[in-house]
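Objective 1b of the project was to move from sequence-level analysis to a structural picture of ligand recognition. The entry below was assembled by the postdoctoral researcher (A.K.) and checked by the PI before modelling. It contains the amino acid sequence of the target and the SMILES of the bound compound, zinc ion.
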Amino acid sequence: MKTIPPFRLILEPMSEEAKMLTPFKWAGDRIGKRHLLGGKPHFIQEESWPVCPDCNNKMTFYAQLDSLNDEICIADCGMIYIFVCLECNEVKSFIQSN
Ligand SMILES: [Zn+2]
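Corresponding predicted holo structure:
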């Protein structure tokens, strides 16, 4: 399993609508800023590391994408986790939330 070095993903609004998006009202400070590419996933629930359906090896963690605000909220302030097998080009994703 290949590991990708960590990158913090910082959102850059690309439209007026995106700029105007209201932030979370009650969620903690970190919620909405946990986007990450590479490194190690920050699991909200227990660790869940998918296995490639083709080669049966552990998949490489590619990214986690956070909820955006109270309206665009993944489950209960959850995140989407994305894993890839760079050998077989297989992708698996799932949601974890509080
Ligand atoms: Zn594979």
